[in-house]
Amino acid sequence: MEIDRQMQAQEEDNFKRLVHEQGIRKQLAIEALSQLKNLHLVKVIRTKIPQELQHLVWYYLWDSCPSWIHIKIQRKEHWVNSEYIQRAKKPAVRRSNKRGYPHWLDPAYVGDETKFNIVDAFYRRFKMFPSNRLISRAMIWNALNVDLFGVGYEPFHVVRALNVDYWLPLGQLAARAYQDTLDYFEPLLAIANKKNFQLTICLRQYGARWDNLARIIDALRVITTDFREAHATIQVTYFTKDMDAWSRDRYCRDIFPPPIPGFSKDITAAISEPGTGFMEELAKALTTVSSPVKLLP
Known about the structure:
With 297 residues, the chain is of the alpha/beta class. The protein contains eleven helices and five strands, in the order αααααβαβαβαβαβαα.
């Protein structure tokens, strides 16, 4: 009886192993067939479709689902001094599925050259993706200088449009506001070809910190002037939203937030033409939709 049970257990193990091996072979066959079909499709696209339309096809791959699902520039602290940049490791790439890049960036499916072209389409349409809003100095620098996909691609020469958000720090000293702003946007000045570059900047605040805002606008004027002289397209927006009472009492007793869900205003003209009385104009606009706004000295 004991021998019979051992033989039966061995037969069951052999059967399970056979089923497992057959499943692996079947999966490998499906994978190989999928690769062949993808490679054939890519070959047809590259040989039958003009280069301009190919970029639209590759762009659709990124546009068919949110780009942040596949790749996003990792946020990390970026010190001001260049010594940190020199000894910093390669900025990380965040992958939500933790299984590497999507299959249409795998050379086994599309080939090395097509993979490069797909990455090229990503950067040429970089501004088109809502998720690609740069919200730190590190992200600005990485977007322009880092080969995130590891294909030998230099985005510095291709990126022609950027969306940059600048959250004005709540606890920032007014004396540091000017220099901190210059440091934040400094990577943009390294762009060699600024002609026809599209730069969209959004200044964001919780509440209206007027003393800092005036200095930040002066610093931002230095950045935008450099682009404007090179015939770039610039748009600057100011956005503020109310804070809850606890945060207002804890972090910023000298801030006068308008009690409204949000307020935005295009301040491109105020940036390009100093002396337009923007601060008074903004205060008046806020006063019309909320309680009176007090200007700090």
